[in-house]
Amino acid sequence: MATYEGTWAYRDRFHEDFARTYFRPFGDFALSSIGVGTYLGDPTDEADEQYHEAIVTALESGVNVIDTAINYRCQRSERVVGAAIADSESQRDEVFVATKGGFLPFDGSQPDDPGRYLHEKFVDSGLVDRDDLAMGQHCIAPDYIDAMVDRSLDNLGLDSVDLYYVHNPETQLEVRSREAVYDQLEATFEVLERRANDGDLGAYGLATWEAFRVPEGDDSYLSLPEILTRAEQAAATVGNEESHFEAIQLPFNVYMADAFTTPSHDTDAGPKSVLEVAHEADLHVFTSASLMQGRLTSEMPDRVEAELSGETRAQRAINFARSAPGVTCALVGMGSSEHVDENVAAGTFEPLGAGAFDAIFE
């Protein structure tokens, strides 16, 4: 697991290569504000080799945050992350590893009949109750997530992960009420609290796509204040004084800035955006889709781009995500070492200050 000593030793080794705010706190840890994402790419040996080289390069260039998920590239992403950490010059306690569980994963490649495969491997085996499935491929039931934590640790070859996300819980809203989703999340949080007590994970959270960014009336909406309440109740049930719910992940980029602009979460002080709620709750925010699957490398509003620092458009897009208030780390897909060099160099430029960032939206 990442440690104070390890992450600060990593920071001390690299911080002079970057701008002042490049390394940011996660509790006592020092984390790079640019992280490696491992979502994109085909489940092939060639892609594995490219990811392996890219992750090793990133770790040896000043990036100590790696994000993955059990379903990414049919479990191959988790496996290559573990291998790359082992093969790099970085020590395990210097590296912050996050993974996710929720979508039922294939194993190594996509089968000819995906639906039949998932049914046989997960439902017929008793690992997943059919009633807990959404869209035939998603489950956040406590026993399933508990089993996926173990499988992720096996894939990664690690004794623990630093952050474990319940993945896209809004998917469950396709088949059950919002209150039922909150209830199931609370039960699953109890499992994750126990796993944290056992040292299998350092913290947990939710990785979402739409849930926190859409208006309250949207079919995909989930309330962050309510989820925080459920996490507190789960911690109390387990006997923990404080919850281990410490982070959220969501898309944030120039074209998807509603985490900052949409006041969709009710608080005692009135409706606030998810970034405001997260900041006030001392939650860490990790942004996904920082380059919008590459779109922002070819286009960006001129008015916004003019305010951002960076030699390339990709660097300016990354620095937009890093500029949002409360963001700990902007995750960027890095499927090749060439991407690593350009993306990491974004950290040599300062992101926008709070006033300049606010001004973009005026």
UniProtKB/TrEMBL annotation:
UniProt xrefs under InterPro entries: AKR2_Oxidoreductase, NAD(P)_OxRdtase_dom_sf, NADP_OxRdtase_dom
Database matches in SUPFAM superfamilies: NAD(P)-linked oxidoreductase
Protein name: Aldo/keto reductase
Domain of life of the source: Archaea
Signal peptide start-end: none
Family matches, as PANTHER family: D-THREO-ALDOSE 1-DEHYDROGENASE, NADP-DEPENDENT OXIDOREDUCTASE DOMAIN-CONTAINING PROTEIN
Domain NADP-dependent oxidoreductase: 34-355
Organism: Halapricum salinum
